[in-house]
Amino acid sequence: MDSHGQYEQQAVWTVVGTDIGPLLLAATRDGLVNVVFHATEAVRDKALDRLGSRLGSEPVEAPDSPLLTEVIRQVEAYFAGERRAFELPLDWSLISGFNRQVLRELASGVPYGSVVGYGDLAGRVGQPGAAQAVGLAMGANPLPVVVPCHRVVESDGGIGGFGGGLETKRKLLALEGVLPEPLF
What we know:
The chain has helices at about 40-55, 65-80, 95-110, 120-125, 130-140, 165-175; strands at about 10-15, 25-30, 30-35, 60, 115, 150-155. It is α/β, with parallel strands linked by helices. Strand 1 and strand 2 form a beta hairpin.
């Protein structure tokens, strides 16, 4: 066995087609580690390079991997309107500190069909003044859709920013039946 073995997390990946375009899904033994929007070839290659350098080994394309089977099933059911909550093991190794804390709270505390303000979410993790930092944490979310950063909106009713683009955020909120007004 090579001496680096214990540090390396081999990831497997695949791309699935969805209503918001192709999604790259990557998983390790610990769980789903990365979801990437708009996974055209160029975006995908860049994301896989980044993932490989973070994990210490090159991700392998393996759509039939048992690590991905359940992820694919749940993602497809979500987009078909048949699943409201993801029940998947998550590998949080790509994110740490405050960002991880905020995203974990989001994953456990903001259910399907609801939204939360950036400031409210900051308050929930004991940092009520940190709305901007929450925005940055959402932008750094390695697990969008599954960790639902699309459910975080501005307190004045604005839709807020979104790493996947506002059109994608709108589609996800529409899928969940919560289109906040005004819609721009």
